[in-house]
Amino acid sequence: MAQSGEINMMLPSGRVLFTFSAHSDVGLVRKINEDSLMAQAPVFLVADGMGGHANGDVASQTVTRVFDEHIELGTPSTPERILDAIHSSNDAVRDISTVDDFGTAVSGTTLAGVAFVDAGDDVGFHWMAFNVGDSRVYTWDGSALVQVSVDHSAVQEMVDAGLITAESAEKHPERNVITRAIGADEFVDADVWLLPASGRHAFLVCSDGLTKELDAAEIAALLTAHAESGQTERSIAEMLVDAALANGGHDNVTVVYVESVLGEEFLPGNAPDPGPNPAAP
């Protein structure tokens, strides 16, 4: 499943241009793809159904369905609507499970993404990043890949406590144990960040099927190589998914990449090329 395109969104003053690509693959080991994605302005997200849990694929698909029902396409959303979609997704995923389900019988999914929002007259347009679980949101400025989200996982808690290093966490045997998920509890605790949206930005959103196979340095090198090559045959999302498969593809792999350029001079069909160096927030 590969998607790519450009979207021009009208604002009260000017426009914002979104250029995006998205791709998901079952991988080389799993039989079912439990990942789902949404890539349509103003929301770009990835949901990774909890492996080993009942209806992981249904859980992730439920998240994208709920967001589609809650978010008006083609116009900036609001932080309140995004939070409402997250909490409504949690309720909907919990409805998949029965009252007698427990442990791995409980349906659940991670959620990570970014949304273009109008945060109010005194705040203006922002990118809102959000996360539940260990799917990730990164910013990319053409040279540095920076993780915005913080994994909700057992190994991240060990890193925070100083018990292990961030490097060793990537290979730790308990790296798949997550501490938060959509559908796991009656109330979901999502982390959110508001990043000013002026100028140029680029975000990478992915399931852990990518980060299990490629570390941040390898992902950054691939992004740089893609920009320098100028190739258009394969999108950034397809390139990264293919690289994860080449490294083993032990899990479902899903990637959403989006660039935005905000400015009043950006008119349909006449927007400047964002190039390889969109400014990070």
Q: State the helical fraction.
A: 25-40%
Element-level helix/strand string: EEEEHHEEEEHHEEHHHE
Q: What's the mean pLDDT score?
A: 88
What is the CATH topology descriptor? Answer: Phosphatase 2c, domain 1
Distinct helical segment count: 7
How many structural domains does the protein architecture include? 1
CATH class: Alpha Beta
Could you name the ranges where pLDDT drops below 50 across 5 or more consecutive residues?
A: 266-281
Rounded to an integer, what's the Rg over CA atoms? Answer: 18 Å
> Which descriptor suits the 3D outline?
globular
Order of adjacent strands in the largest pleated sheet: 1-2-11-10-7-8
Count every beta strand, where a strand is a DSSP E run of 2 or more residues.
11
The CATH homologous superfamily is named PPM-type phosphatase domain
Task: Describe the largest sheet.
Answer: 6 strands, antiparallel
Terminal CA distance reads 29 Å
> What is the percentage of strand-forming residues?
25-35%
So, CATH architecture?
Answer: 4-Layer Sandwich
